[in-house]
Design brief:
The complex is a heterodimer of chains A (570) and B (407). Chain A is α+β, with helices and mostly antiparallel strands and 570 residues long. Chain A has 16 helices and 15 strands. Chain A has a single domain, classed as Cytochrome-c3 Hydrogenase, chain B. Chain A has a three-stranded antiparallel beta sheet with strand order 1-2-3. A three-stranded antiparallel beta sheet of chain A has the order 10-8-12. Chain A has a three-stranded antiparallel beta sheet with strand order 13-14-15. In chain A, strand 13 and strand 14 form a beta hairpin. Chain B has 407 residues and is α/β, with parallel strands linked by helices. Chain B folds into two domains: 174 residues, NADH:ubiquinone oxidoreductase-like, 20kDa subunit (Rossmann fold), CATH 3.40.50.700; 139 residues, Cytochrome-c3 Hydrogenase, Chain A, domain 2 (Irregular). Chain B is built from 17 helices and eleven strands. In chain B, strand 10 and strand 11 form a beta hairpin. Chain B is globular, with a radius of gyration of 23 Å. Classes of the chains: A alpha+beta (570), B alpha/beta (407).
Amino acid sequence: MADRIVIDPVTRIEGHLRIEAQVDGGKVTAAYSSGTMFRGMELILKGRDPREAWIWAQRICGVCTTVHAHASVYSVEDALGVEIPPNARLIRNLIAGAQHIQDHVIHFYHLHALDWVDVTGALAADPAKTAALAQSISDWDRSSADYFAGVQARVKKLVDSGQLSLFASGYWGHPAYNLPPEADLMAVAHYLEALEWQRDVIRVHAVLGGKNPHPQTYLVGGMAAAVDPNSPNVINWERITFMQERIKTMRSFVEKVYVPDVKAVASFYPEWWQLGAGHKNYLAYGGLQQGNRTDEKSFGFNRGIIVGGDLSKVVGLDQQKITEAIAHSYYEYGGGDQAALHPWSGETNPKYSGPTPPFTQLDVEQKYSWLKSPRYDGMPMEVGPLARMLVAYGSGNKRVQDLVNGALAELKLQPAALFSTLGRVAARALETVYLLDLMDQWIGELASNMESGDLRIHDGSKWDPSTWPAEAEGWGFHEAPRGALGHWIKIKDRKIENYQAVVPSTWNAGPRDEKGQTGPYEASLEGTPVANPEQPLELLRTIHSFDPCLACAVHVVDANGKERVRVEVR
Amino acid sequence: MGEAGGLHVSPVLDPGAVQPPGAADTHGWLMTALTDRGISRRRFLGFASAMTALLALPQAMAPQVARALESTRKPVVVWLEFQDCAGNSESMLRSSHPTVADVVLDVLSWEYHETIMAGSGHQAEAVLERVKTGTDPYVLIVEGSIPTADGGVYCTIGGKTAIALLQDMAANAALVVAVGACAWDGGFPRLGPTGAVGVGDIIGNKPLVNLSGCPHNPANTAATLVHYLAFGKAPALDQYNRPLFAYGHLIHDQCERRANFDAGRFVEAWGDEGHRNGWCLYKMGCKGPQATFNCPIVRWNDGTNWPIGAGHGCIACASPQFWERMSPFYDRLPGVKMFGVDIDAQTIGIGAVGFVAVATAIHAGGVVARRSRERSRRATVATDGTVVPETTSEPAPSAPAGDGDQN
């Protein structure tokens, strides 16, 4: 018998996502992904000073905080032809790297782990055996039997109180939970440790940007975080060492807790290396420039396309091939719903045509999402850490190849296993290690520049709008934690004429297109086993493996409800 | 304005009222939890004392705060997200006093919060139903604006509109707290096509605390919740229902760079010598002279820094409708008084600093030094540059958000 599963709200994500799935014979036969919230950022940006676009655009998302600021200032600098000084680039990269590392750890422990870890299972654990397990996978020092007994007592008190707080509504006892109680207890301990860790390490953002979320330090042309080794009020030696300490703290937790935990949890769920693949098409814009803004060779993250899981062939990115479809999205196109428009000639006419709230089920034969359906050369593409690691791997990035090959050997897996739910989890962890090396490098370069007397943080040659051409347009790209992010801006008479962002979760979470091709979430859910349709834990595993961010994904519209966004082709 | 802005709700923490299962211990769940984790009574009392100080209460009140924190049944919190970016949720995760784990697991029963809660779908919806119809008083925290256009179709959760969910959950809430700019007055979505409004526009006369800021500062939110636990009501509020302890003073008056403003030392270009020496950012567009917030005192991320400390001007993110009122963010505020307390007749006119001071003073139209500055400790600057003493008013929005003055 066929069941209709509806998950709304999907929690432990950013934003408002609804998943509907048809289940037959204990497996998903069709899935539908719907974004259920809309704000309208681009309309609001129109007519404003392009130099402050980043302050607004950053508010597209507070989880991916900073990434939209990053892409925004690069788009204006691209339009005006500004190259920022090396210190500004380093500060931006340090902010971006810290964001990735902190966000990936939060994702694993606080957004994803409860799909694999039964919190109530921890009550049955033997603290001594838990200590033995923890010590067998890592030399992290918080691993004594007493320590785990204390954590267990805290969980027990929570359960006994009858007030389970955040844990009140989990699928505890679900048959798909496979961890032994000791692994559950260890993971719960690390969940709590990660809560404290994340608020400490993100203080790097506070040093460089004043606060997190929403650091307030970007400038078109550079950064506002002044650098001077001999001044008490700015980035100086004391602040450098403060950040180095946080970066050390990042490394120790990532290497001794996060990565070992990912491996340990994965070892109890081997079937999830075969589930959740989807289309096996991957896209990365690349980013983390370490030289000229558009010099692909300097990118910390490689750029490219992989089609059908063919790692031997990474294709160069051609923006002309990006289109967006709206056949199943709450928008209208002048040329009809079957059109697939390049952003250059894109339109956004919001028109809700879903069921009148309150409703229980979407009509998926009609329009069913506030997300559009981005396509590359007509194909749905997955973006994110897995896409980045695969593109880097296929592009010959030696450090990434070493990390990936090492992990595959340790887990006794072939590269094809990466096309899976656990592949996304593993890629996120490997990417975090990759970024730690870059963080060390960048903070060292910033210190060296200070030492050598290079204190430049801003190129002010184009700060005064009177120096600008009458019209200009640019593209800013960035690899956000959740994947490829692009901002396009058109400037006319010193004001924003048009602005558009095409963001990671739109690529991943978008609905079917005009040809009926599923989006990546939808494709990845097909074939997923479902033990209990009332508790669709298995669906959440795959959805969460993408790290959904829906506020980012739905935000586009302009004043007339029409976008005229030009994509600059390089 | 009356005590606590006239806002009174039933005390949650009557220790004898509701006993949780197994709560036979005599010194309360929080003290027990802390003891279990090796935290001494002395440290606990220190925490209560620090909270008392943050809330600007007399230290004689510290024992009362401690007693309330030692009660037996954890108050329930429901955190709803509507047209949000989850930035306020993330900010709450950065809470350091108390720590986030203490807040969401030990001090309170944080039962519904989509960004971090365990359950999804029906199980999540069931939590709302249980809390709404249960006997435990609950605090409703709201993040994000509420779209009202076209029947509310621009934000649905579980097939229900944000408006319906907010009305439903606010009806039985003991206290409603709006965190962040969007939940307060509609934030930037107010300027878009979805008819976005703040919580106060939807919930009528329910007790409401607005914790503005983009995002809210979790230290203020934690302190507001602790005050509520201790006294069963919100702390004293201004006409926007914002706690006076957080929003009662101008940023300009609390700014570590104020001495530079008074001395006429301004950043003239990004990365210049003044910028590298931490001089005043007024000329780079800083909105500190028109914003009230305790941002310079509490700072962010465990007191690490704040935006002006990182070299960028304030955007007045805690002020009413700041997006439209304070943008363009890089334009100078008009009519800011220049006090020049460090400048005397001998230095005016001599050198660049003197020139700047004179130019600014002329621009601002006059100088009354120390006395004005003293007055402005409890004052704000109106749009025409006049100082309004002994109130906490900011430029009034054309359509005030919330039910401010009614409370």
